[in-house]
Amino acid sequence: MDVAARGFAYDETPKTLVLIDGQPVNVVVYSGMQWPTLPITLEDIERIEVLRGPGSAIWGADALSGVINIITKK
Question: Could you give the domains of the chain?
Answer without folding.
Answer: 10-72 (2.170.130.10)
